[in-house]
Amino acid sequence: MNRLRTALATAAALGLAALAAAPAQAAAQPAFLAASQMPPSSTPWTATQVFPGVPENGGVLCAPYKIPAQNTRYREFSTELDTNGVQVTTVARTEADAVKLVDTLRKSLAGCGPLLERQNPGLHAVSAYHGKLAVEEGAWVYSLDTADPQVGNTDIHLFSVGRDGRTVTLVRWGQMGDLADAPLTGFKTTTKTAVNKLY
Predict the structure, then answer these.
(1) pTM confidence score
(2) Cβ neighbourhood burial of 172 (10 Å; 0-12, 13-18, 19+)
(3) Which of 3, 24, 147, 152 is the most buried (most CB within 10 A)?
């Protein structure tokens, strides 16, 4: 009988520990932007569910295959006017690994324009840095302005990379047009929200 009581007590203790751990595990997952937290648009934003891994083609424009698929999730955003975006968030093994990933992504974003021009003769692409934001361990904002004279298309993309401890998040916004058409101030607000929401 004593053995039975001990076994029941142990099982109950394990059950309580599991219940206590469940909310903690759920809370440990970084949170994502809501559609309403993207920069203002003339038509409403919609957001997909949060998916595991990285988006198609290994990540995002300017940083393909830089973000590991393991411990990574993403959410995509869109409007009726072809304005689109994505947030990719990864939890690194250590804080040092997170710092290294941020450095890698920042170099990719800063050098994206010249790289695209080398890969696509005739394309005009300009990357620009728009400063560091004071949020958690920091966030950095970039833009990519492209023009293809052969097709007559111009596109503008805004990017940001932010970090909170071991967690790194990358946000991209894009549409047709140029930098003058981009909501740079609103995107910086979105970036701060994204980093603050992680935990």
Answers:
(1) 0.85
(2) buried
(3) 147
